[in-house]
From TrEMBL:
It comes from the Eukaryota. It comes from Gallus gallus (Chicken). Gene3D superfamilies: Immunoglobulins (2.60.40.10). InterPro entries: Ig-like_fold, IgC2-like_lig-bd. Residues 4-57 form the Immunoglobulin C2-set-like ligand-binding domain. This is Leptin receptor. Keywords: Receptor. Pfam families: Lep_receptor_Ig.
């Protein structure tokens, strides 16, 4: 397993919506903080009843 620096990570919501860089900040080399606006946690998205936040390299 190899670690990836947080500055190389891109964040996605439900693998469909890329989170703009303006909504996440680097806490340190291994940690990012993501802020999600207008998130409706109880509204179903297709067959899913939750939202998932993904980090991609």
């Amino acid at each position: 397993t190899q670690s990836v620096a947080s500055k190389k990570i891109v964040w996605w919501l439900n693998l469909a919506e890329e989170i703009p860089e303006s909504q996440y900040t680097l806490v340190n080399d291994r940690v990012s903080k993501v802020t999600l606006f207008n998130l409706k946690a109880t509204k179903p998205r297709g067959s899913f009843f939750y939202n998932a936040l993904y980090c991609c390299h």
